[in-house]
Amino acid sequence: MYQNVNRLLQSAFDTCLKTTAFQGFSIHHPTNSVSVWVRSLADVDRLTHLQTLPVTADCTVQVQAYLSSGSDLRRYVVSGVDPGESPEGIITALTCSTHKIVTARYMGRGRTCLVTLQGPRTPPSRITYYGCILKFHVYKPGVVHCYRCFRTGHMRDSCPQPADTSMESVETRTYKCGLCQTDDHEITSKDCPVKQKALKARRQRKRRQRSVTQEERDADIPTSNRFELLSPSEEDTPALVEPENACYEVPTYSDAVKRGKKTCSAACEYA
């Protein structure tokens, strides 16, 4: 079986490339893809015109060829290009001083395109589009999941597995509620007896909390840090007696010096 498939693929590539000098190919069953090694970019352009591949003698499948990232190829996402241009026009308008622009294609219907550059591993300093510097970043492809066999590397439409292991292939069984383990009501419904019991206990707990709070309020028990400013009475406030030697004026520096001299002279006389 595999020998027949390899022979049919070999003949398809020979017909597309119009030569038998390509280096070879390999089939990747998990990703449902085929890798082909060619000698030049001209052969890559020929392979992009290949639309179908024969799987058996009576069956063909649609394919889409693209250039994978090699050792000297890097892909970048460039934003700001004009919509509606052809890939050849984008390649002509884009310029880079350190890398060679190999391919370019739009990503969706916006102003963003995926550009493949050939050159050093380091990113380019700038990419210009009609002389204007555009923003770009390294392209990081996301992980592709298949919801038919639940494996990564391909999508549901190109799944190589004959059996459908998803829930859509079999009759949906009746699900049970995770709380009461019954199927007489919808999941997380208010009719669930376990949920009703929990809600009833919650209402009773809130009712008890409200009653305790009301009893504390009636008993005038402080339950928080609340303070009141009380004005002092005249009986509690003692009368202030002003001392005889009270001084309310700050002496000057010269008065303080003279006072010190008089004290010293008086002390000398008494001595």
TrEMBL record:
Region named Disordered: 198-241
CCHC-type domain ranges (all copies): 146-161
Alphabetical keyword list: Metal-binding, Zinc, Zinc-finger
Residues spanning the membrane: none
GO molecular function: nucleic acid binding; zinc ion binding
Biased composition (Basic residues): 198-210
Top-level taxonomic group: Eukaryota
SUPFAM superfamilies, A to Z: Retrovirus zinc finger-like domains
Protein name: CCHC-type domain-containing protein
Organism field: Rhipicephalus microplus
